Amino acid sequence: MGADDIQAVVSEEISLANSARGRWHAEYLGRSYRSAVEMATAQVGRGSRTVLKTDLWNECLGGARGIAGYFHERDGLRFFGLDLLHPVCVEGRARVPAMHVVQADIRALPFRAGSFDAVLD
Fold it and tell me: What number of other Cβ atoms are within 10 A of residue 9's Cβ?
C-alpha cells in the first residue's frame, strides 16, 4: 500500500466520521473510552502527567473518538502521540496542535524507559 492509497483511506474514513452514522458511532464509543481514560489517568495522580497515545487514527479523524484532543488541555496532562503512518501523524498534529506527534514504530519506541506516566491505545 503506497502513500496515495493510505491518503485515500484516511480521506474516506474522515468522510465516514463526518456522516451521521459515523458521528453516532464516534460519540457512543468516545463516551465509553473517555470514561475509561479518565479512570486510568486518575490512577496516575494529580499534577503534571505525561501520556503517550499510540495509534493516532482516531485523532486523525477528529470528533469524539480522539482522546488526545479531548484530554490534552485538562488536568495538567501532557500528550505525546505516536503512529507509524506519516499521513495519520500529519492529520493528527493538525487536529490536536498541542500534542507532540512522533512518527515511529511501536516496536522501537524513540523514548527512554519511564518517560510516560501512562500509555493509551
Answer: 14
